[in-house]
Amino acid sequence: MTRAQLKKTMTIMKNQCMPKHGVTNDKVGKIEQGVFIEDHDVMCYILCVYKTIQVVKNNRLDKDLISKQVNALYPPEIKEPVSKSIEKCIIVQDNYEDPCEGVFYSTKCLYEDNPANFIFP
Description:
Elements: H1 3-21, H2 25-28, H3 40-52, E1 56-57, E2 60-61, H4 63-73, H5 76-89, H6 99-113
Antiparallel strand pairs: 1-2
């Protein structure tokens, strides 16, 4: 998929998860630009998006599931750098007991590590 196709596909997940967690586009619309609002509803929204794309196991991001999705869906030119960021950032979630917080801060790490290749709806 191209980056645009991937983003369009992920927008479906965004539209499913926003009402479930009571967040507005004002709160979550700029995550891809690095705007991470530290609000528990936003944190759980991000977890919801990842659950919907099936990269979560036992309320934690799962490296193997993420790798399968990246390999299947991401444009070839960004697969390797994204995989390196995942390797670095997935462990951040282990610092948090709350699954929403853990996934939020892992996602923030992914953005900070590689903003040019970060894709989120």
